[in-house]
Amino acid sequence: MDVTIGTFNLNNLFSRFNFQAEIQQIQPVGPDGELTSKYVFDDPEKVRIRTYKGKLVKGKDSGDQDLIAKRIQAMDLDVLAVQEVEDIDTLRYFAAQHLGHAYEFLSLIEGNDPRLIDLALLSKFPLGAVTSWQHAVHPEAPGERVFSRDLLEVDVLDPRDTDRRLLTLFNNHLKSKFVEHGVDPEEGKAAADARRHRQAESIARIVAARTRPDGRFIVLGDMNDSPDAPTLAPLATSPELSLTEALAHPQQTREPKADNPPPPASGAWTHRFKAAGQNAQYELFDQIWLSQSLTSQHKSSHIDRRTRHGGDGSDHDPAWVVLDF
């Protein structure tokens, strides 16, 4: 049985609703069977507008939602780990309205990010235990939660025997490289790198404690750095885990757009960033690390290549692997 498992940063999948309120009375339906009503939300005690740093949190553009949905449908994966989803209701609505209920099993736990972007899972296979590690701390900073968002651990069950666990996924979204305006660029980069390194150390420690050396598990998600970056060394070099990054030589769904300089010939990239007046940087932010036992079951790796430099509905390209069970 071939099983396809992937990761995709959906880039701010917020709902089309930006308010929360209590409606005391629903207006009656007219004789034509239609309901047209106007409600005024003017009581601050009953209305909460979602904002972040003084700006209204708006829903993801409908055209961009269509684009990411088409990419997900084209991949047709069995299990997809996603990042940057507002909440479980947004995920349910997206799965129903844009994916045609193709994914019966959904999981999302609210995490630590003040921007309301959470980790989630869409699966055609039944799911078992779901664990959030959002409260984990690192010894170097015991007074703060180490994960900016979360480390979401999910057991995927075997569809042929739901009493049997097929494998365990550890979904991630590590500290970004973005430095806030007004912060010294070098200091901001150093702080972000240090946070990401502590996160990688915490992932390695937690995964090692939760799995066996011969276990079937995958560490995946948006790592916000290259696989060989010093910040991710705790994952790449952990002797307890012996992980293998599976996207070193992926098959691309299409040729990348021309650029100067051109993107990596290996195709091992999922994120493109171009600062003003600078060359574009191509990096494999979205990664799939296989446990030792799954490495022998690995058949192929794939990346759905964007058609525009800015991306198709997301600034990340989704990636996935095919495993032989």
Secondary structure layout plus pairing:
Elements: E1 2-13, E2 19-20, E3 48-49, E4 51-52, E5 55-56, H1 62-75, E6 79-85, H2 88-97, E7 105-108, E8 118-123, E9 127-132, E10 137-138, E11 141-145, E12 151-158, E13 161-173, H3 185-210, E14 217-222, H4 233-236, E15 244-245, E16 251-252, E17 271-273, E18 281-283, E19 286-290, H5 292-295, E20 298-303, E21 319-324
Parallel strand pairs: 1-6, 13-14, 16-20
Antiparallel strand pairs: 1-21, 2-3, 4-5, 6-8, 7-8, 9-12, 10-11, 12-13, 14-19, 15-19, 17-18, 20-21
Number of helical regions: 5
Q: Give Rg in angstroms.
A: 21 Å
CATH class membership: Alpha Beta
Number of domains: 1
Q: Order of strands in the sheet with the most strands?
A: 7-8-6-1-21-20-16
- N to C succession of SSEs: EEEEEHEHEEEEEEEHEHEEEEEHEE
- Envelope shape: globular
Structural class: alpha+beta
Low-confidence runs: none
CATH superfamily: Endonuclease/exonuclease/phosphatase
Strand residues, percent: 25-35%
CATH topology: Deoxyribonuclease I, Chain A
Q: Major sheet: size, sense and barrel closure?
A: 7 strands, mixed
| Total strand segments | 21
CATH architecture: 4-Layer Sandwich
Helix content: 10-25%
Q: Average pLDDT value? A: 92
Could you characterize the architecture of this molecule?
This is Endonuclease/exonuclease/phosphatase family protein. It comes from Streptomyces sirii. Pfam families: Exo_endo_phos. InterPro entries: Endo/exonu/phosph_ase_sf, Endo/exonuclease/phosphatase. One of its GO terms (molecular function) is endonuclease activity. There is one protein chain. This protein has 325 residues and is an alpha+beta fold. The protein has one domain: Deoxyribonuclease I, Chain A, CATH 3.60.10. The chain has 5 helices and 21 strands. The chain has helices at 62-75, 88-97, 185-210, 233-236, 292-295; strands spanning 2-13, 19-20, 48-49, 51-52, 55-56, 79-85, 105-108, 118-123, 127-132, 137-138, 141-145, 151-158, 161-173, 217-222, 244-245, 251-252, 271-273, 281-283, 286-290, 298-303, 319-324. It has a 7-stranded mixed β-sheet, with helices on one face. Strand 13 (161-173), helix 3 (185-210) and strand 14 form a beta-alpha-beta unit. It is globular.
